[in-house]
Amino acid sequence: MLKSIAPLMLLATGMLASQTTSLAHDGPDNHFHVLPHDNMRIWTVLDSGSTISGTFVSVREGKAHIRREDGWVRHVKIDRLIAADRLWIESRQLEIVAMNTLPEYVLTGQGGKSASPADDAPAIADSFAPFGKVAKVRWDEDYFYIESNGMPDHKMMVGITAWQQQVPLPQNYTGENAWRIPLHPVPAKNPMSAKDHFFRGAIALAVNGIPIFNPIKNDGKTDTLLAGELDEFGGHCGRADDYHYHIPPVHLEKIVGKGKPLAWALDGYPIYGFQEKGDTDYSPLDKWNGHKDKDGNYHYHATKTYPYLNGGFFGEVVERAGQVDPQPRAEPLRPALRPMRDAKITDFITTKPGSYQLTYNVRGKTGTVSYTLASNGSVAFQFVSPDGSTSKEEYSPNRRGGGNERRPGPPNNSPPPQGDDRPPLDEKGKKKSEAAKSALNSDATSSKSEPEFDVTSSSLDSKGMLSVACTCDGDRQSPAVAWDNLPQGTKYVAVSLWHTAPDQEKSYWVVYNIPAAVSELKQNSSGAGTLGLNDRRRATYDPMCSKGPGVKKYHITVFALSQEVKLTASKASRTDLLEAVKGITLGETTLHFKYERKSANVE
C-alpha cells in the first residue's frame, strides 16, 4: 500500500495546481465524500489577509471548497491561500485520492468506527433508487441533492379543466440548482402551517424528482385539486412551463412498494402513502399530517382530503418571500398567457423523442399545441386553434425569462374570466368533485408562486440585456417597468429590483404604494409611489455596477396588492417590503434580465 502512495502524492499535487487568482462563492457544495475529520479551521487569504471560518469539503479545478458555519460554501483559488493552508489541503487531498483509488484503503472515522466510501450512502438514497435514470443523486455531510429535468415518466396534463395554457418543458434542476433535502432534520420550535405560508414554490420533492407545491394556490384560498387544475396524477405546469404536483404522488407506490416513502418534505422528513388500519404505524395524524413511528421517527402521510400531504413543516425550514428557501428556480422560456376558459385537456403524447403534442377541447372543438425541443435549448411551437387557424413560434434560451414579447399560444376565443369563480378550499368537508376523487385514487400506469399578470420593460433589448443608461456606466437611470392584466381587486402595486448572489441577496430599488391606475414606471421615472431603501440605505435607485466578470442575472418583481403597504421611511428595505406584503399579495410576477459590465475591473 505504501508503494501506491508516492504516485498519489503527484496526483494530489496536480489536482491542487491553479492558473488564475480570482475568488468566488456560489452556494452549497455537492461533493460526494467528505473526510470524517474535524476540519473546522480559520483560512487566510494571502494578498488581502481576510479570513474564512469553515470546514474543508473538496478540491475542484484548483479551488478549495470551504463550507462556512452558515452552510454556504466558499470557493477559493488555492494559490490565494497562505502556505500553511495549502499544505493542510494537500495532506487532506492525498487521503481523498487514496480513498477513491485504493480499494484496500479504509478510513477510520470519528469514534474509531471503520467506514469505506461505499458505506456512506444515507438511507434517503434508497427512496430515489428506482428512478436512478431520471433522478441523479449526490450528498455531503448535511444535505442530499437530487438532480432532474422535471419531466416525469407518465402521461401529463390529461384531465385538466382549468388550463392556463402551459405545456411541460424540461427544467435545469442540476448543479447548484439541484433540489436539496436536509440529512439531519430538526423539529421546529414553532412549526409553520401551509394554510398560512408557503404559497410559492415547492414544499416537497417526489422520489421521481418532481417537485410538489402547496395544494392551495398562491391566492391563499383556492384548492388546486378541487378547482380542476390538476391532471390524473395530481400535477400541472406552472407559468415557467414547469411540471409539478400539488398532491402526493400515490401512483408511485406501485413502483417503490407499500410502506416506502413517496416523497420527502423540504424539512427532511419523509412522506408515505395512505394509512390503512392494520399498518404497523397506524395512529392519528397531527395537524401537519404526520406522526412518529414506534421508534420515535417522525414522518408525514398522504390523505385523500386536505392537506393531502405535509400540511406545513414539523421540521425547521426558512421561509423567504413566501416559499422555502433555498430551493431551485424554474426558468421560463416564454412569457405567460391567461387561462383559457372552457378548455379541457384530453391528451398529451410524445410524437417522437423530444417532440410532444397536447390536445384540448373547447366547447366541442379540438385544438392542439405541438412542440419540439432542439439540442441548443430552443423550442419550436405550432398551434392549431379550435377554429382551425394555425400559428408557429420559436423560443430560444437567450430570450428566456421574457422580454417585451407576449407568450404565443392558441387563441383564447372564450370571454375573459370575471373574477375568481373557482371553488375555494373545502374546509368544511363538502363533497369533493369527481376530479378530486379520480386524481387521488388514480392507479393508472401510463405514462412559488405562479405569476398572475404580465410584466415587461422597454429598458431591455431583445436578448434581455439591460440598457447601459440604467447602469453605473451610463446615466444611472431607473429602468422602465410596465404591467398589465393585474388581478381583480388590486389597489396598489409595489416594485422590487434585486439580485441573488450565492451567499447574499442584494436590493437595488424598492417602490411601493403605486396606485393600481398606474400601469408603468417610465425609465428614470419619479413621483409614482413611495421610494423604499436600497442596500445602501438610500431611498433611490442604485444602478448595476458589477465588479466581477461575466453576465449577471437580475430580477424585477412586481406585486399586485389588495391594500396599501404600511412602512416607515427608516424601515422600507426589500426585506421589510416582503414582510409587509404577506397576506395582501393578490399576485406577483418576476421579470428576469441580464447585465454585463464590459468595463469592469476584474478582481
Number of folding domains?
3
Cα distance, first to last residue?
44 Å
- Identify the strand order in the major beta sheet: 13-12-16-17-19-18
Helix content: under 10%
State the shape. globular
Give a brief outline of the structure.
The chain is mainly β and 603 residues long. The chain is built from six helices and 35 strands.
Explain what the structure shows.
The chain is 9% helix and 31% strand. The protein is mainly beta and 603 residues long. It folds into 3 domains: 2-115, Roll (SH3 type barrels), CATH 2.30.30.700; 125-324, no CATH class; 454-595, Phosphatidylethanolamine-binding Protein. Strands 13-12-16-17-19-18 form a 6-stranded mixed beta sheet, with no helix packed on it. It has a 5-stranded antiparallel beta sheet with strand order 1-5-4-3-2. It has a 5-stranded antiparallel beta sheet with strand order 23-24-25-26-27, with no helix packed on it. β16 and β17 form a beta hairpin. α1 (2-15) crosses α2 (83-101). The protein is globular, with a radius of gyration of 26 Å. Mean pLDDT is 79; it is low at 1-38, 98-119, 399-439 and 441-451.
